[in-house]
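Recall from the previous lesson that a structure prediction takes nothing but the amino acid sequence as input. Here we apply that procedure to DUF1403 family protein from Aquamicrobium soli. The sequence below is the only information supplied.
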Amino acid sequence: MPAWLRRAVADAQSLASKDIEDIALVAGAAVGALDAVVRRQERWAGAWRQRLALAAAAVTAKQAGRVEDEAALRDAALLTKAGDDVGPAGRMLLAWRRLATRSTEDLLAGKNLGAVLEEFGYAPDDEAVSDLTGELRRLAACGMVEMLTGALIAAERYGFGRAVGAWLADGLLAQRLGWAYALPLLGAEVNAAGSGRARRSATVVAASSEDGTAQSKSLMAAQTRAALRAIDRAVELGRRSERLLAVAPKLRAQSSDLVVERLLSNDAIVASDKVAGMSDRGLRRLFDRLVELGAVRELSGRPTFRIYGL
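The prediction returns the following tokens.
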């Protein structure tokens, strides 16, 4: 990333003094750079999107007064039996993962939106979902800033809060740019209201008492930071995936190629995951070998129920 772009990201103190055109230029450059990464369609893109979803879910859970951090959310997703309740914070992670794994063509459809709202903890409301779906179609034809700001305003107007607004804005951005899958971007920015980091970085979209220009400037600054953070995460995962792919030919375990693909496509997997032709013991040995080779990390820090990922 060019150094000028990182230096240009406005903080709380400088945001008010900057012209909206300058902030728009920086935001456009950051999103353009992010778009270039997305269009490379890297093999590790699935893990990238899920890591961004985990970060967004952790901020969302904290804002909702939950105590679960990223490690606890990961446990909820991976160690809960199929069909069991993952808890309120775990459902927030499912919502952000839905954004990262569903085709952008289906993201903003009424049925999917209804499921997302329930995962964020809102009671089903078919009328509100129908109205919101129609408003999103209208916003999709607007300019970029109006579209993203409108998504956040609409969510709060219907009583769904800023977490849902960030989710909708990310979905609209992905559709506008023609991405196959959305990236969870604004969730870790817009949802941070009230935290010390948010007050320092002014990532939160302006309150309704602010004028439209201030609101747009705040949103574009948040979008810039989110894009840069996603690019940094992509660089990190790219290096780690290169190491995994470099050692993959050395693996002799049955179905090791499937394990490699699972690691590239997911935030993390557990040694008890069912991989064709591999026993739990064989899978644990393979993970131990990958850790020894520096190709993956053990993420839980536990002696049992261990979790592995890039």
